[in-house]
Amino acid sequence: MRKNECIAMLLAGGEGRRLGVLTKDLAKPAVPFGGKYRIIDFTLSNCVHSGIETVGVLTQYQPLVLTQHLGIGSPWGLDRREGGMHVLPPYVRQKGGSWYKGTANAIYQNLGFIERYDPEYVLIISGDHIYKMNYDLLLDAHKKNNADATIAVISVPWADASRFGILRVDEEGRVVEFAEKPKKPTSNLASMGVYMFKWSVLRDALIRDEAEPGSSNDFGKDVIPALLADDARLYSYQFDDYWKDVGTIDSLWEANMDLLEEKPSLRLNDRDWRIFTASPNQPAHYVSPSAKVKGSLINEGCVVEGHVNRSVLFNGACVGEGSFVEDSILMPGAIIGRHATIIRAIVGEGAVVGDGCKVGSVDAEEIAVVGSGETIRPQQELKEAEPV
Question: Which sites bind alpha-D-glucose 1-phosphate (predicted)?
Answer without folding.
Answer: 100, 165, 180-181, 191
